[in-house]
């Protein structure tokens, strides 16, 4: 299991992650845009979102650092654009952490299956720290 940092950007994620890849001499990042996600029949993706980065990551000196753009219309506050991501192969552990941290906090997304994970969720704890939880079954992952 690891605790990874997740950085959000306001439309310039691609530029930032390519810059960091150059600075830290990492492999070129694999970038998934919002436009490359499976279509949702209940939601039409706005044109301005299609080329924005939904997810990418770099391994910087042994640490996973994940990046994305905020979705158009979502709040972006410089300085508050960092969350911590728990990636684990232990589903019970993810559920336990999530349910403890949501006490007195605010759930951003209940634990649920997504196209990238059998169990993903996010919560802002009572201290204002955002946590993301992602079950890594070993088959596919963030």
UniProtKB/TrEMBL annotation:
Residues 6-132 form the PhnB-like domain. It comes from the Bacteria. SUPFAM superfamilies: Glyoxalase/Bleomycin resistance protein/Dihydroxybiphenyl dioxygenase. InterPro entries: Glyas_Bleomycin-R_OHBP_Dase, PhnB-like. Pfam families: 3-dmu-9_3-mt (PF06983). This is VOC family protein. It comes from Paenibacillus profundus. The lineage of its organism: Bacteria, Bacillati, Bacillota, Bacilli, Bacillales.
């Amino acid at each position: 299991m690891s605790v990874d940092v997740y950085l959000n950007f306001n439309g310039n994620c691609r530029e930032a992650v390519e810059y960091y890849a150059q600075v830290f001499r990492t492999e070129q990042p694999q970038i998934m845009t919002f436009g490359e996600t499976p279509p949702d029949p209940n939601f039409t993706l706005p044109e301005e979102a299609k080329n924005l980065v939904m997810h990418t990551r770099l391994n910087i000196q042994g640490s996973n650092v994940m990046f994305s753009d905020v979705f158009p219309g979502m709040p972006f506050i410089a300085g508050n654009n960092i969350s911590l991501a728990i990636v684990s192969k232990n589903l019970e552990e993810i559920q336990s952490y999530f349910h403890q941290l949501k006490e007195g906090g605010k759930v951003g997304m209940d634990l649920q299956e997504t196209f990238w994970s059998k169990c993903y969720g996010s919560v802002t704890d009572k201290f204002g720290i955002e946590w993301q939880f992602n079950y890594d079954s070993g088959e596919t992952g963030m």
